[in-house]
Amino acid sequence: MEGLSNCAQAPVSNLAENKRSELAEVIDEPSRSSELWGDWKWQLKNRITTLEEISELIQLTKREEEGIKRATGRLAMAITPYFFSLIDRNDPKCPIRKQAIPRIEEFSVSSCELVDPCGEDSHSPTSGLVHRYPDRALLIVTDSCAMYCRYCTRRRMVGEELPPMSMERFKEAVKYLKSKKTIRDVLISGGDPLMMKTEVLEQYIKELRALPHIEIIRLGTRVPVTLPMRVNAELVNMLKKYHPLYLSLHFSHPREITPEVVKSCGMLADAGIPLGSQTVLLRGINDRPVVMKKLMQELLKIRVRPYYLYQCDLAIGTNHFRTPVSVGINIMEELRGHTTGYAVPTFVIDAPGGGGKIPVAPTYLISQAKNKATLRNYENKIFNYMEPATIP
Ligand code: SF4
Question: Which of 224, 252, 323, 347 is close enough to 327 for a disulfide, judged by CB 3.0 to 4.6 Å?
């Protein structure tokens, strides 16, 4: 932080140069023990956002160079120094790198791809509120994230870094929620709600908690993974006042589970916040059963329960990330029965156009007759389950 305030007096070109050399120095520091590294505001201020900055740190491929040049405006490149440090800089196929650095493939649009793949905009009664299912609603409070995932399904609205939802708009949403007594669960998402100031986020959570029919509040966030130092005592102490409150985290690869992430998830779990993880199935990143199993098992070790495995949505420019559905089914086949049930998420396809999440699984029920069901287990052994006799 001090370094930055000194830089503030320097001419713009020097500022950029200073930032680059400071970044290179801190990223390369093996102990990562510097005060700057653990300061989430420093991490945000020093996100890698330009071709010049990143070129000093890594040898880019031609496709990446072109991708970065074209990824301007919404969902432009932004990588925290922390997340960047997880990249294997000698490996163009590094799974962390593919998630964070734009490639030219993002700009080839397939005819089946959709601007709003989950049909959220058509289910929005007030600005920022999505009411798609009878008993739950989604509140989109900000368009900012710590790092912009290149496969983001909300790319239509994420990354302009506009001010968060105003209190005025929030009150409109609350008015709607008050009028819908069937809604018992509100998911606060974005962008990433943990990008907001703690006191602003608290105001929103507090108002929601005051509605008697809202039984649970959930926060959808990737910040504990891409900016784990944001999870500090101030944030955790605020969150734990509003139980039952759940966090839906977003992990993509076992390499994301670092000592920093172990700490951030540990603090949240110690505060009694149930942690779940949603993972998007991504080509060349986590589409091998061995990688997915490792991720799921590592998550349980840090008290994060794998929750959903998503087939990658048909968001514009994501064809290079998508796998055939059979790849996900095969992964589920390799998980169920082969590891702890807690480590097995539900594989779902969010139906294009707003049909909601549809579970997809290997077939274990081979046939169903009047008096018996024939099943196969994870070892492909066949079993019969006798149905109950008719009760007169
Ligand atoms: S954190 Fe979530 S909302 Fe933000 S860019 Fe990644 S996928 Fe999109």
Answer: 323
Residue 238 and residue 320 share a domain = yes
- Is-catalytic flag, 132? yes
pLDDT tens digits, 56-66: 999 999 999 99
Catalytic residue among 145, 151, 204, 308: 145
Mean pLDDT, range 204-214, rounded to an integer? 98
Same domain, 156 and 20: no
Which structural domain, as residue segments, surrounds residue 376?
363-392
Residue 110 lies in a domain: no
Query: Would residue 242 count as lying in a domain?
Result: yes
- Give dist(CA 45, CA 103) in Å, integer: 24
**pLDDT > 50? residue 11:** no
75 Cα: distance to centroid of ligand 1 (angstroms): 9
- Mean of per-residue pLDDT scores for the chain: 92
Residues with CB under 6 A from ligand 1: 145, 148-149, 152, 154, 158, 190-192, 222, 250
Per mean pLDDT, which range of 105-109, 243-247, 303-307 is the poorest?
Answer: 105-109
The domain total for the chain is: 3
pLDDT reported for residue 48 = 97
* Closest by CA position to 53, among listed 30, 33, 27: 27
Which of 43, 73, 105 is the endpoint of a domain? 105
